[in-house]
């Protein structure tokens, strides 16, 4: 019964977070944008994935849960601290998950504040030059009750609710599209890019590992390359979350 109530509460909180904005924001970007983001940070996302982005003169945002760094996973090898330092030095952005990778909808205000502080402290112990400005909801579950708190701590929060961001958006619940082989194909990427171009929007991709045989949550190098090529053909700028937000506020 307790588990059923917890699941129902999470769904309600997520639904409210999806549909109720606490502060609508009008995007002011002069041209369409795309951002490539990676969650939980498998090592091959920080190496293979980042390298492909760099081949297109693009930089990504990598959302880190400190408790997962160096931790073995059934799906991938995790990054270690030197991988994060290398990403930062190459111009990629280090973003924040909760430290323990817990869903925000399961946390009260005090516990969420502790999770954020623990993650900041951990990441800054690796490199005090990291700028931890943007957040992604672990497992994609938003929390309406925590939106005000997250707004005070971060410039943006990324969800996994699909869609292209354009016009007036919710910076505490930005929409994103999976760049995952099992969820999207090349034609769907092309259509998302067309919508982004036609609406002067901001397309955000999310994924995890980047491997020839990706996990159910990751993408192949070929799919990532195709998305970057599709953006390049349309002259859509590939920007990290932090870079895109600067353009959105111009």
List keywords for this structure.
alpha/beta; 250 residues; 6-stranded parallel sheet; two-stranded antiparallel ribbon; TIM Barrel; 10 strands; 40% helix; globular
Describe the protein's architecture and organization.
- Helix 2 links the parallel strand 2 and strand 3.
- The protein has eight helices and ten strands.
- The chain is of the alpha/beta class and about 250 residues long.
- The strands form three sheets. Strands 2, 3, 4, 8, 9 and 10 form a six-stranded parallel sheet that branches. A two-stranded antiparallel ribbon has the order 1-7.
- About 40% of the residues lie in helices and about 15% in strands.
- The protein is globular, with a radius of gyration of 17 Å.
Shape: globular
For CATH, the homologous superfamily is named as: Glycoside hydrolase/deacetylase
Query: What distance lies between the first and last C-alpha atoms, to the nearest angstrom?
Result: 50 Å
How many helices? The count is: 8
- Give the amount of beta strand, in percent: 5-15%
- The overall average pLDDT, rounded, is 93
Low-confidence stretches: none
Which structural class do you get from the secondary structure elements? alpha/beta
Question: What is the helix/strand order?
Answer: HEEHEHEHEHEEEHEHEH
Q: Bin the helical content.
A: 25-40%
Largest sheet: 6 strands, parallel
| Level-2 CATH architecture | Alpha-Beta Barrel
How many runs of DSSP E, i.e. beta strands? 10
Query: What would CATH call the class?
Result: Alpha Beta
Evaluate the radius of gyration.
17 Å
> Can you tell me the number of structural domains?
1
CATH topology label: TIM Barrel
Quaternary structure annotation: single chain
């Amino acid at each position: 019964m307790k588990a059923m109530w917890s699941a129902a509460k999470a769904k309600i909180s997520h639904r409210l977070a999806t549909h109720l904005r606490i502060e609508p924001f009008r995007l002011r970007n002069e041209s369409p944008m795309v951002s490539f983001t990676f969650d939980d940070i498998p090592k091959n996302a920080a190496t293979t994935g980042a390298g492909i982005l760099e081949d297109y003169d693009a930089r990504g945002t990598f959302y880190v849960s400190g408790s997962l760094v160096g931790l073995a996973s059934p799906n991938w090898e995790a990054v270690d601290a030197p991988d994060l330092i290398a990403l930062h030095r190459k111009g990629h952005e280090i973003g924040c998950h909760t430290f323990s990778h817990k869903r925000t909808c399961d946390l009260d205000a005090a516990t969420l504040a502790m999770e954020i502080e623990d993650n900041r402290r951990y990441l800054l112990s690796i490199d005090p030059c990291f700028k931890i400005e943007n957040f992604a909801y672990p497992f994609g579950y938003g929390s309406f009750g925590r939106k005000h708190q997250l707004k005070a701590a971060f410039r943006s929060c990324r969800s996994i609710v699909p869609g292209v961001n354009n016009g007036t958006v919710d910076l505490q619940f930005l929409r994103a599209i999976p760049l995952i082989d099992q969820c999207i194909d090349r034609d769907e990427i092309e259509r998302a890019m067309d919508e982004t171009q036609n609406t002067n929007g901001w397309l955000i991709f999310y994924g995890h590992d980047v491997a020839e045989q990706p996990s159910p949550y990751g993408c192949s190098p070929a799919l990532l390359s195709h998305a970057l090529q599709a953006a390049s053909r349309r002259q859509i700028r590939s920007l990290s979350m932090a870079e895109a937000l600067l353009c959105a506020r111009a």
